[in-house]
Amino acid sequence: MNVRSQVSMVFHLDKCIGCHTCSIACKNIWTDRKGAEYMWWNNVETKPGTGYPTKWEDQSIYKGGWQKTEGGENEISLRGAGKRKGLLNIFHNPNMPVIDDYYEPFTYKYLDLIESPSMDDQPTARPVSLITGRPIDIKMGPNWDDDLSGTQDFARKDPNLENLSPAEQEAMFQLERMAFFYLPRICNHCLNPACVASCPSGAIYKRGEDGVVLINQNVCRAWRMCVTACPYKKSYYNWNTGKSEKCILCYPRIEAGYAPACMHSCVGRIRYLGVLLYDADRIEQAAASDDSELVQKQLDLLLDPCDPAVIAAAKENGIADSTLHAAQNSPVYKFVKEWKLALPLHPEFRTLPMLFYVPPLLPVMATIREKIKDQKLHDIAKDWEDTWLYDTSTQELWGAIDQARFPLKYMANLFSNGDQNLMKEKLLKLMAVRIYRRHKTVGDVTEEKSNQVLKEAGLTPKMAEAIYALTSLAKFDDRFVIPAAHREQAIEMMEFTGDVKGSTGFGFKDQTAKRGL
Fold first, then answer.
1. Phi, psi at residue 28, to the nearest 5°?
2. I need a surface site. Which of 90, 288, 331, 351 has the fewest CB within 10 A?
3. What are the pLDDT digits (tens) for 361-371?
4. Positions of E strands within 160-229
5. Under 8 Å CB-to-CB from 238, ≥6 apart: which residues?
């Protein structure tokens, strides 16, 4: 058992309000410079929608991630990169997104508003490209599909709608059923990162102490295979420096005990960060497993940090006691393994992402009520709004999950590789906690029914209280359990190794040396 530690994340989608504060915080710190204007290491997408870059989920276009090797029983290969494919596409890569798939960064000539000569017409601030400096017609932008659920250009072109029947798709866009939710995304810092495997220069690496995936700017040669290989399209090319860049999970902040900027600034408090322990010897087997087992195999990689055997193996592998303590108090472990509420985004890409999502329950109560009302389950129609939970069986409550505004198939396409039963299991737990809290606060659900609902969802009152506390009442230290940094390891990584300088990723060492610090 090769036990290693990984700083991992959970995003609770039921709490995201789509304010984009996380995106702006990241932009102001890391990508507010020439060549990085179009980069959004953190972005928030509206679902259904095409996302950023356009249709990034459609690997028939971009050829990202891994695929099972034909004829190989437990073998996988990069879909659009690798030694042979990379050599063939070294001068022309047809599967790499172009600037139009993102957007050409622009600003406005605001000086025209105050420096234009006197005239009869009102002067305007024309949009100009930040790349060429020439006037442009704006056709695309970051989060361009924000809140445009139902539009022909965005929502109806969502790749996740592909295997839904025309009737199911049309039902999603009926005015009375229309709904959308927000999907915040950052680099997943995967256990089996395709970007690392694809880099011909070996510039991309995964840090041993916390699993953060970084790009050594001194070694990067701008082959841009990482841009193709990452199925989530979270590796970007800086056209000014000629280097690739990506989310670094704010590792200088983590090392100082602070949460990443996007998480610290989150208004909805949807983000959680903590340590997970995993068995590195089983990564290859998990990544190469059958489609139906991908999610479970990935979850099986994650180890119980309180298990004495795991603790002993971790210490033998050099994992510090402080990291083990952080893993034992990790909110991510609770959501992913203990309560089984969170799932990875598009596990079929086989990168084993370490960012998990608690799926949105979305508005289902109106659907339930209409169903109950139509079936005339109440004797007194005028009082049914106040008494529906008393008279409704749990089976009827669970059946309403299938009638939710978002088809289970759509949600399963996002988070469980099409496994609708697995997705339904998560939604049932979320709904059970909601009904339990209704019993506690409103009182229109009996204790007997509340306990029955929890039991059928695989929860206990104690677990429901813990889920509620971490979801709604958690303080900063509850949401972010950051392991202590070990200076001796950091110094060792910063030392010169051969002809290559220490790989901090963005020149922090060089800048420090110049200042004489």
1. -65, -30
2. 90
3. 876 544 445 54
4. 181-185, 204-206, 213-215
5. 35, 36, 39, 244, 245
DSSP element (H, E) containing 278: strand 271-279
Please report, for residues 6, 256, 485, 486, the alpha-carbon distance to residue 482 in angstroms, rounded to integers and kept in the order given: 11, 9, 9, 12
Say what the pTM is: 0.88
For 405-418, give the secondary structure using H, E and C.
CCCHHHHHHHHCCC
Euclidean distance between CA atoms 328 and 314, whole angstroms: 13
Beta carbons of 212 and 204 less than 8 angstroms apart: no
Tens of pLDDT, residues 53-97: 999 999 999 999 999 887 667 789 999 887 777 677 777 888 899
Contact 453, 484 (CB under 8 A): no
Say how far apart CA 166 and CA 355 lie, in whole Å: 32
CA angle 292–298–303, rounded 5-degree value: 140
- CA 453 to chain centroid: 30
Neighbouring C-alpha atoms within 13 Å toward the C-beta of 323: 26
Q: CB under 8 Å to 347, separation ≥6 — which residues?
A: 294, 295, 298, 353, 415, 416, 417
Q: Based on C-alpha coordinates, what's the Rg of the chain? A: 25
Domain ranges of the chain: 360-477
Q: Please measure the distance between the N-terminal and C-terminal CA atoms of the chain and give it in whole angstroms.
A: 42
Residue 210 makes CB contacts below 8 A (sequence gap 6+) with 5, 6, 7, 251, 254, 275, 483
Q: How many CB atoms lie within 10 A of CB 512?
A: 12
Residue of 295, 209, 262, 265 whose CA lies nearest to 41:
262
> CA geometry: angle at 413 spanning 410 and 414, to 5°?
95
